[in-house]
TrEMBL record:
Manganese recorded as keyword: no
Keyword vocabulary terms for this entry: Chromophore, Kinase, Photoreceptor protein, Receptor, Sensory transduction, Transferase
SUPFAM superfamilies for this protein: ATPase domain of HSP90 chaperone/DNA topoisomerase II/histidine kinase, GAF domain-like, Homodimeric domain of signal transducing histidine kinase, PYP-like sensor domain (PAS domain)
Annotated Histidine kinase domain residues: 527-750
Pfam families: GAF, HATPase_c, PAS_2, PHY
Organism, scientific name: Flavobacterium johnsoniae (strain ATCC 17061 / DSM 2064 / JCM 8514 / BCRC 14874 / CCUG 350202 / NBRC 14942 / NCIMB 11054 / UW101) (Cytophaga johnsonae)
Protein name in the entry: histidine kinase
Length: 755
């Protein structure tokens, strides 16, 4: 049988380390050995150092059944452990292999069971760890802030593990790290507060920290041990993402050597599925710890991650409470609904306090109200123009305005803003001034890679390097952003109420003026229509007397003139009467009642019976419905429509007028949800071109000359006004020389009356 090692021999440098496959190094650290088993218990992988722990070489183990090498009892113990409810990454299996005692961690990598065996540790250590953990939990309850908790965890982890230095390492949004808490021997230089660039921990390393929350390097100067396998396929490999013994990247080893570190333990701190930070333990000589101590160290990390939300909430609770109180006071203000109230609002100290800003500005109707440390009006207008060009939908917030608008970098009186649009080009902006801060880096972050005659290497200098950060404000906390959003919404509503109040006042004044004007117009109209009829009546009387004296002598030259004067006076009296009828129709819909249109039709026929006989007209009418209407208006409407048909009868045929109606309510305008009954008047008169269907309902609109057809031109306009008064409508359809159809529509009491 042929064997091969699976060592990854790809050359790794700082130029390609971000792509280094650190999960498949093909090697382990030498403080334990590794075996890989198939599902049918064949030893498919084995490290070359197995002979350092038991009297067996890797060539003797590979390809054989596990029971044939280690015995049936050992296989049964492992089988029972794998299939038990034991949390395997917490409690390793204690087992005897070829008369040697080991603690074995077991996990599955694809279809291979990976066994990592280390010599069994002293049981007394477990009792000490338990006592220290109980003490820690008691002390933990006395801490309030997250920083205090992390400091306690750093101290407790150092006591439990015995490492020279323990750091709580916290990442920012870009994965730059900060030593957030630290406990170290007194003879060591403290790293507390130092920052490390994100390049120190590449992406794939961060991903591996999430998969495997514990990484141990016992001796930084270790010689990696190769893993061998049966040579039965090309590119055969073993994923060691979850392995405790996994060999470390040579780049990382060099990095630690440059720091002078001899051994490390790293615990991942995962919060909301993101790598929040690390517990980084450094020792300045080689050091190994038992599985019990490793578990206790992992528990320390669990204490932190389980408390992050609570402690951060406690840290922000006081300031958040102040913001809420400021918001409540602002929203509780009882101010008049006028633009002057903005002068009061802008001066309220709570307006700055609700999001801890240095200044605030409100723009309303192109006027800017300001308070605190703010830009000038011209700068505010320029800023708003740029923000709106970004098409901000809801709001815009930044701590460094120059990131989005480099041209504003020199505006030193503000660096951070929260902008909220308030509709109609109105807005509110909170400002924060620039906060110059000093960051202490563990070495120059720009020189994290060093080039020498041997090539590229991780930096070897960790001397403190100071960076001065300008052009940015302190971070806007979420509760501050929320408070600003809530008040912006409240202010938007107030501004809308101001506009509505002003609009309502304008409407009230206009209504008052309109009422007075209408009253005056009614008086003028009554005088003009009623009082003018008297002189016209006298003119008619005089002309009639003079005409009678002429005894119908049409040869007399004065007879024709007197006759024209009499006819003109009669037309004018008719016109004034129609105008009076038109203007006296008011919105009387509330006076409507159930009216039987059949009775209205009969009264109409009685009144115009002579005209019907004179014109030799035929009127056919089917049964008409009951509608909500006003009786005298309906009679006026029927009179106007029928008289219109008689007036515009065709000279080539006798007039025929047909009146039809809907017997049940029908839907005629679905888009407007109008439900109504209808009555249609159809005649065989001269008709009209359909393009005039709307204009014929306008006052004084005539399609024919006065010489052709007499009339005031108000009749159909009067009909339309009657139907509008009742909440209905009227339409016309015509064909030249064929006839006209006029249809009137009545609103229903309720949609429920429809079939």
């Amino acid at each position: 049988m042929k064997f091969k090692d699976i060592v990854n021999r790809d050359l790794v440098t700082l130029t390609n380390c971000d792509q280094e496959p650190i999960h498949i190094p093909g090697q382990i650290q030498p403080h334990g050995f590794l075996i890989g088993l198939t599902n049918d218990w064949i030893i498919d992988y084995c490290t070359s150092n197995i002979s350092s722990f038991i009297p067996l070489s890797h060539t003797q183990a590979l390809g054989n059944k596990f029971a044939a090498v280690f015995g049936t009892q050992a296989q049964e113990r492992i089988f029972s452990y794998i299939n038990s409810d034991t949390v395997q990454d917490v409690f390793p299996l204690e087992i005897e292999l070829l008369n040697e005692k080991f603690q074995v961690n077991i996990h599955k990598s694809d279809d291979i069971y990976v066994l990592e065996a280390e010599p069994q540790f002293d049981k007394q250590i477990l009792a000490d760890v338990y006592t220290q953990t109980i003490q820690f939990v008691t002390q933990m309850n006395n801490t309030k802030s997250l920083k205090d908790l992390c400091a306690l965890v750093a101290e407790g982890t150092r006591e439990i593990t015995g490492y020279d230095r323990v750091m709580i390492y916290r990442f920012d949004e870009q994965y730059n790290g900060e030593v957030y808490a630290e406990s170290c021997n007194k003879d060591l230089e403290p790293f507390l507060g130092l920052h490390y660039p994100h390049t120190d921990i590449p992406v794939q390393a961060r991903e591996l920290y999430i998969k495997n929350q514990l990484r141990l390097i016992v001796d930084i100067n270790y010689q990696p041990v190769p893993i061998f396998t049966i040579d039965d396929s090309k590119d055969k490999n073993l994923d060691l993402s979850l392995a405790i013994l996994r060999s470390t990247s040579p780049i990382h080893v060099e990095y630690l050597k440059n720091m002078g570190v001899g051994a490390t333990l790293t615990i991942s701190l995962i919060h909301h599925d993101r790598l929040w930070g690390l517990i980084a333990c450094h020792h300045y000589s080689k050091k190994n710890i038992s599985p019990a101590v490793r578990l206790a160290a992992k528990l320390q990390g669990q204490f932190i991650t389980s408390q992050i939300d609570i402690r951060e909430s406690n840290d922000e609770n006081i300031n958040s409470k102040k913001s809420i109180e400021a918001l409540e006071r602002l929203t509780a203000l009882d101010l008049p609904l006028s633009e002057d109230s903005l002068n009061v609002i802008i001066k309220m100290p709570e307006l700055l306090a609700l999001c801890n800003s240095g200044g605030v500005s409100i723009m309303f109707r192109n006027k800017i109200y300001r308070n605190g440390l703010t830009p000038e009006d011209e700068q505010i207008e320029a800023l708003v123009e740029r923000i709106e060009n970004k098409r901000v939908a809801e709001f815009y917030a930044t701590r460094k305005i120059s990131d989005d608008f480099p041209e504003l970098e020199r505006s030193s009186n503000f660096a951070g803003v929260i902008y909220h649009p308030l509709g109609n080009s109105n807005h509110i902006i909170w400002y924060r001034p620039e906060t110059i801060s000093e960051i202490h880096w563990a070495g120059d972050p720009e020189k994290s890679i060093v080039k020498d005659e041997k090539g590229l290497h991780p930096r070897n200098s960790f001397n403190i390097w100071k960076e001065t950060v300008k052009g940015q404000s302190t971070i806007w906390r979420q509760y501050e952003i929320n408070a600003a959003a809530k008040y912006a919404h409240s202010l938007h509503n107030n501004l809308m109420m101001i506009l509505l109040s002003e609009e309502e006042e304008r409407y009230r004044l206009q209504s008052e003026i309109l009422r007075e004007t209408n009253s005056e117009l009614e008086n003028i109209n009554w005088i003009s229509t009623h009082d003018l009829q008297e002189p016209l009546r006298k003119i008619q009387m005089i002309t009639s007397k003079l005409l009678s004296e002429k005894k119908g002598d049409r040869e007399d030259p004065e007879f024709d003139s007197l006759e024209r004067v009499s006819k003109s006076a009669a037309r004018m009296r008719g016109l004034l009467q129609d105008i009076l009828k038109y203007t006296r129709i008011k919105n009387t819909r509330e006076a409507a009642e159930k009216i039987d249109l059949n009775l209205i039709f009969e009264d109409t026929l009685d009144e115009i019976s002579e005209a019907i006989t004179e014109n030799n007209a035929v009127i056919e009418c089917e049964k008409l419905p009951e509608v909500n209407a006003i009786g005298f208006l309906m009679k006026q409407l029927f009179l106007n429509i029928i008289q219109n048909s008689l007036k515009y009868a065709s000279p080539d045929r006798s007039p025929v007028i047909k009146i039809t109606a809907s017997q049940e309510p029908v839907l005629i305008k679905e888009s407007f949800n109008v439900y109504c009954s209808w009555v249609k008047f159809s005649d065989n008169g001269i008709g009209f071109d359909q393009k005039y269907a709307d204009s014929i309902f306008k006052v004084f609109t005539r399609l024919h000359t006065q010489q052709q057809y007499s009339g005031s031109g108000i009749g159909l306009a009067l009909c339309k006004k009657i139907m509008q008064t009742l909440g209905g409508t009227i339409t016309a359809e015509g064909k030249v020389d064929q006839g006209t159809s006029i249809t009137i529509y009545f609103p229903c009491d309720s949609q429920d009356t429809l079939i």
